[in-house]
């Protein structure tokens, strides 16, 4: 399963398909978090399709959609709760994985410094330097 690791318990990636879910389980993930709103791109699987595949594999699924420029305090809180409640590794996804990374950096469940969050995001392929003041 191709993903970018942010912490020992969280990886992010682009769009997940129902066919990817079994590979996620095999890779040790116990929860999938979808941050991509349904209908954002043509041919994109609906979150409900991913939920059904996840539950069929015994994984927990959370749907916390955020639109471009629409990351709200409520979404950050929901993401923090989903990460806190996870009983193992979490795979969070979006179209490219960037908004899933932004949500993680904003909720900061590990209590990391701003510089550490920016560095981990960069290693995962996402430059969040424009968010430094919000972190």
List the helices and strands and how they pair.
Blueprint: E1 4-7, E2 10-13, H1 21-26, E3 29-34, H2 47-56, E4 60-63, H3 73-85, E5 89-93, H4 98-107, H5 114-123
Parallel strand pairs: 2-5, 3-4, 3-5
Antiparallel strand pairs: 1-2
Task: Summarize the structure in short.
This protein has about 140 residues and is an alpha/beta fold. It has 5 helices and 5 strands. The N and C termini lie far apart (about 30 Å).
Please estimate the helix content: 25-40%
CATH domain class name: Alpha Beta
- How many structural domains? 1
Order of helices and strands: EEHEHEHEHH
- Please give the count of helices: 5
CATH architecture: Alpha-Beta Complex
Note poorly predicted spans. none
Please name the CATH topology. Protein-Tyrosine Phosphatase, Chain A
Tell me the distance between the termini: 29 Å
- What is the total tally of β strands? 5
Shape: globular
User: Which superfamily, in CATH terms, is the homologous superfamily?
Assistant: Protein tyrosine phosphatase superfamily
The oligomeric status of these chains comes to single chain
The biggest beta sheet reads: 5 strands, mixed
What strand order characterises the main sheet? 1-2-5-3-4
Mind telling me the C-alpha Rg?
14 Å
| Share of β-strand residues | 15-25%
Arithmetic mean of pLDDT = 94
Describe this structure in words.
There is one protein chain. By secondary structure, this protein is of the alpha/beta class. It has one domain: Protein-Tyrosine Phosphatase, Chain A. It is built from five helices and five strands, in the order E-E-H-E-H-E-H-E-H-H. The chain has helices spanning 21-26, 47-56, 73-85, 98-107, 114-123; strands spanning 4-7, 10-13, 29-34, 60-63, 89-93. A five-stranded mixed sheet has the order 1-2-5-3-4, sandwiched between helices. Strand 1 (4-7) and strand 2 (10-13) form a beta hairpin. The longest helix is centred in the middle third of the chain and has 13 residues, at 73-85. The chain starts with a strand and ends in a 12-residue tail after the last helix. The model has no long low-confidence stretch (mean pLDDT 94).
